[in-house]
Description:
Layout: H1 2-6, H2 9-25, H3 59-66, H4 71-112, H5 118-136, H6 139-147, H7 150-169, H8 171-175, H9 180-212, H10 230-250, H11 253-271, H12 274-277, H13 282-301, H14 305-312, H15 328-333, H16 336-349, H17 351-356, H18 358-383, H19 387-393, H20 400-409, H21 416-440, H22 446-468, H23 473-492, H24 494-504
Amino acid sequence: MLARTLASPARVNTHARSIRRARTTGVRPHASARVSTASFGTVVPALGRDERKTVVPPRRRATARVVPLARPHARTSVATRATEAREHAHLVASVGALFALDKGLENGLKAAGVSFPSALIGMFGALVILMVTEKLVGEDAANKLKSTVSPALNWITSWLPVFYVPSLVVTPLVLTKIAPSAIAKVLVIVVVGFVSTIAFSATSANAIRGMTGTTLLPVAPAKAAPPTEDYVYKMWGGILAVSTVAALATGANSAKVVTMLAATVCSFLVGNSPDVKAKMNPIVTTSVLANVYAAALGLVTGDGWMGMLGLYRTGVPFGLNNIAGLGAGDILMTFLGSVILSFAFKVFEARKIIARHAVEIFGCLVSTSMFAMFTTAVAGKYLGLSSALTAALVPRSVTVALAIPVTTLLGHPEMVSVTAAGVVLTGLIGSSLCIPILNKVGAKDPITRGLATAASAHGLGTAALVGSEPNALPYCALAYALSGIISSVLVAVPFIQAALIGIIGAA
């Protein structure tokens, strides 16, 4: 009966009169007359002041109005998937753009007979474009230009160690060709070299800071890398399982390449998990696990451990005609050029810090780079190391991506695996000794400690320092990139390159 009363024409007319009265008098229906229908899913119009009564929505409408409540969620899900699809497309496009730029420059310089690393030219070119855009058009325009590749920059930051690992993975293969006495000398150079380099760097940074006296400004902390999505683990785990079965069933080299690629990525995912990362550097974990897998696969297939490592890094340069000859390590290392290009955007982000502390930064990094390279060359010569081994150790304080071009410029591209091993060993030593040495030499402020650590022990030393001194992070990150850039540029200078080669001996 109540339902019939609510739905009657008289009730409808009464409500209509209420609405017309509100329009003509400007008096809105009383708020208290609004009926909450959360329990029913039905909207009942508010009644006027004179028509207020207790109204219960009819039961027959409850069911009809409940069903559509699920529709907004469905629309949201579709919108979310569309957004994710656009983000993934942007990521693929931006990574592809950096990769294509790197390879285009590489091929162009080769055709022109230019031996200078193409990735470094690309990095400086990108930095110049950003700076010119900011100067002529404005900061917003430069930031928009940067945002076009920001997904690629974030991706590179998250996966950076993976691109360093291949040269380190094949280190056991390289060490089989080096005499044990030479290995002992290498260890002496790396350990003593690190201690002397960080002490020199901190002392020089302190002296320059004392002369400039520039006040440090607060710097926003760097954003942490986002966690790896679950689907990434599932995808690469599936690739590893399927490719392993294929490699064992067919014995095809192509299947072995794919399974070693998947094994490297999966090893990194394990090494980069919080629990494992807290105990061991992801680069070391990835290298060890990848070698364990290579040894196991080589045992089952009959290729042997060294045979699998030989297939892992074939040394075939990237090219559309050479894809079939690439090993898993070769595929990963093709992205090193893109990594170097990304440094341009990192430097651009820190341009205000660089401008404010230019004297301290460049004074410390240039002097440290020269000290590290020339003392290493002299030590190798004095200890009787071969020119190849000495050249491989010259960039030991530089991040792997930029250390490899230095070794190549010195005429020994075949020794880049030793270079990678020397760089990682230097970083591991630095992660343990950087803080005690900095305290010993009296390095106190964040910029001095950050510059000295990154200039002598690159990323691994940086991670150790900022774990307890987060205010040093901006200067560590800056020096981490600039130190390698400066070393590469210095070695490319003809008279410096000739001086180093004169000490270590020609190839």
